Amino acid sequence: MLAKIKKLELEAEVLEPNSKRRRQLAVVIEKYAEHFLRTLPTDKTYTADPINANAFRRLSISERSLEIAEILALLDKYVVKPGLNINAPGFLGFIPGGGLYASAWGDYLAAITNRFPSASFVSPGATRLENILIRWMNNLVGYPKSAGGNLASGGSIANLIGIVTARHVLGLKGKDFHRLVIYLSSQVHHSILKSLRIAGLEEAIIRVVPVDLHYCLDPIILNQLIKQDKKNKLIPWLIVASLGTTNTGSIDPLPEIIAIAKKHQLWVHVDAAYGGFFILCRSLKKHFIDLNQADSITIDPHKGLFVPYGLGTVLTKENNDLFKTHFYDEVDYFPDMDNEHPEFSPTNLSPELSKHFRALRLWLPLKLHGVGPFRAALNEKLLLSRYFYQSLSRVDHIEIACKPQLSIVTFRYCPPTGDSDQFNSLLSTYIKEEGKVCFSTTVLNNHTYLRMACLNFRTHFDTIALALDVLQHGIKHVLKA
Ligand SMILES: *Cc1c(COP(=O)(O)O)cnc(C)c1O
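That is the input. Now the predicted structure with pyridoxal-5'-phosphate docked in place:
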């Protein structure tokens, strides 16, 4: 048996490369990363997917091992290149963030140290780091000391945690679900509706509150709907406000919504996944008044703080609300976590137990650069979007959905003749395939619009000027076609 054990040990030895081998891997991988970053600004914003049987075969796992150089070549060709180049400065679709370089080293250290930021008794340091970031964000939004939060994988999961917490804290029971009423606007992110379904609340009544000309929820109608529902013996429960909608970057009127929620005792969840970190910009302070009165907030560092995808945050005005919802004791294989350590254990505040050491991908860049450059980048994006908006306003036949409040400009070209929706779809596809910049499309009032979302920290003036040129040229092309 000993001989067998020794043989297996030898076979598995490669799993712990020695120092020399580690260096070899690091050099090759870093070379690839450098090449990726150096060519990023000039790479196309879109590459068609060459996916074929060969790609599947070559990416599939088998008993055979490959050299790192060969693996990177496969990765580049079949994984990294195809599709939208969302890190490129010219990528102006969806909500781009860019992916900070320093975060990559944060992730590297997170993986190497592999700390367990779930329970403070296991890793008080990793737990502390997560809590320090939560506290920093709680301070930003103006929450009291009793506030809490959790680093989740993204905004969708943060929204889910917010909604499940609202359900639990208010003690809602299944027998009443069909009488519950949720208020949100037509512009709410679909992850909210998905969260309601996952949270078992499909039977609840959803009131889609109309929006005004700026695509912001109308608080007067909201108030009327709640009063009517109360009269009809329904249970108004939750208002979801958006602080920066995905379609147009519109901001629902928080002070009015908060006042209504207080009067009728409803939970307010603010989805600030996209817009939240614009709180760093002094010129926008007025939009964030009363954010600290919301019961829960979603805010995404992988959007407004440019960290690579995989980091969203839920904040709650009362940490205890998260705790009551997620704490689970009587775990035989865990010591009494409650009294272990003064730092809160993240596992008591979310559904996760073993989790990625996410804090490092945000903490490292913030420590390395300070907050100033983040604020500057956000202010720059605001001005770039305003420049784009003003320039676009001077282009014939362009209709802009609304004046941008943040960094999204939503618009369409209304051709003198023919179907405008078809025209804008063709325009979007032409620009995408040309690959210099990339917009995305959306639907407003049953019409196809293009969206310019400026949030990649790499997008600067040159790119916005290019985007305007590309658009003019694209319009001419589609008109001729
Ligand atoms: C992006 C976004 C979400 C979803 O966040 P993910 O991190 O993509 O899961 C939710 N709400 C709004 C307003 C968003 O822009």
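Residues 372-393 form the longest helix (22 residues).
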